Amino acid sequence: MHHARDRKVLLFVTAALMVAIPIEGSAFAQQATKLDSTRIARVGGRTLSHSTIIHMPADELFAHFTTAEGIVKAWSVAKAKVDFRVGGQIRTAYNADADLDAPTSIVNTILAFEPNRMITIKATAPAGAPEWLQLVCREAFSVITFEPVSPLATRLTITGVGYGEGEMWDQAYAFFDKGNQWTLDEMKRKLGPGDEDGAAGVGGVMELLRSFEGDWVFETTGPNGKPFYGRTRFDAIVDGTWIGADGWLGGEEGMSPHAHWVAGVNPATGMVEYTNYFEKGHIGTGHIALVAPNTLGFEMLVYTAGGAQEVEAGEGVASAPAPPQKMYVEFEKKSDDAFVSRMYKGIDRRTEGAKPMMELPYTRVAAVPEKFLRVKGEAIPGEPAPSRR
C-alpha cells in the first residue's frame, strides 16, 4: 500500500514539474500582501534546485511549456490542458481517461513568465494528497528558467522556493529532490540526447570528424553553366582536441577563401559545437551530430554582417540586427576517400522531405591539383595579369 501511495505522489511531483509550488492562481496578488516576516525569511533561505542542459534552442524548449502537446512530451504525462497566461493553469494527468477538471487532477497555476526565459508556477495539491504534500503546495512555489548556453542548447533550471524547517518539510525536500531529478532526466531523454546517448554521440562525432583530416576537392558545373570548384582542408589543431577546416570556392578564374571553422566539445553543454567564419563577415554557430551511419549533421544559425532591419519603435523606426538565418549541412562519408556535402537553407536540422539547395561530391587528394590552388586574380601562366583597377 505504501508503494502505491508513494508512486501516486511521485506522479504528482513529476507533473508538478519538480516544483514545490502552490496557491490559488488569480488570488496570488492578494495573498502576496499578507506574507509575514517568518514566511519571507523562509522563502529567502531554503531552496531546492535542479538543472540540466537540453539540446534545444531556448525558444523551442519554452514553447513546450505553453501547449498541451508540449506538456505531454516534456512532462511525461498522458494528458494535459494548458491556459498559458498569468493566472492560467496547467492541468495534467497520467491516465489518458482522466477528467482534467476533477479535484484529483494535477494543477499548476502560472504566477509569472518572461517569454523564452522564465516561468513561475505554483501547484495545488490534488484531493487525497498526504499532509506534507499539502504543506509544500500551500507554502512554496517554483521558478523555471531557460538559459541559452549556445544557439541550439539550453540550461533548464527548476528551483523550488519556500521550503521550511521540520520533519514534514524534510520529507517533502527529500521526495522532491529525487522526483525532480527524475523528471529532468526524462525530459532530457525525450527532448534531446540523454547523458549516455549524448556521450556516445559526441565520441562518434569527433571520431568521424577526425577521419576527414587532409585535403578534399570537388569539381562540378555551377548554375551559370561554368565549372565550379571547391577545396576544403581539415586539420587537428592546438593539441588535437579541436578540428579546424578551411574552405575555398571558385572556378577557372581562380579560387577565393570562403570559410574557416573550428569544432570540438563544448564543456558547458557536452555537445560538439562549431563556429564558422564566412567571407564578408558573416558568422555561423551550431552543433554537429551523428544523424545517420557515417553522416554528420551540422545544425547552424547564420548571422549576417550588416544585416540590420528596420523595426517599429514608438512613433518611428529603429535599426535592429536581422534575425539569424537557418542553415543545415550534411557530410555523408561514402568511403575513406569520398564524401557528399548537402546544404539546406531555411532549416536548422534534418527534415524529412527537404531538398538540398546544393549537393557537392568531394574526393580526397594526396596532392592538391594546381587549379584548386590558384588564387583568383593571379595571372594564369602564359596570359597577361588581370587589371587591378
What features would you describe in this structure?
The chain is an alpha+beta fold. It has two domains: about 1-190, 2-Layer Sandwich (Alpha-D-Glucose-1,6-Bisphosphate, Chain A, domain 4), CATH 3.30.530.20; about 200-370, Lipocalin. About 25% of the residues lie in helices and about 40% in strands. The chain has eight helices and 19 strands. It has helices at about 1-15, 30, 35-45, 60-65, 70-75, 130-140, 165-190, 195-210; strands at about 45-55, 80, 90-95, 105-115, 120-125, 140-150, 155-160, 215-220, 225-235, 240-250, 255-265, 270-280, 285-290, 295-305, 310-315, 315-320, 325-335, 340-345, 360-365. The strands form three sheets. Strands 8-9-10-11-12-13-14-17-18-19 form a ten-stranded antiparallel barrel. Strand 11 and strand 12 (about 270-280) form a beta hairpin. Helix 1 (about 1-15) packs across helix 7 (about 165-190) and helix 6 (about 130-140) packs across helix 7. The radius of gyration is 27 Å and the shape is elongated. Residues about 1-45, about 195-200 and about 380-389 have low confidence and may be disordered.
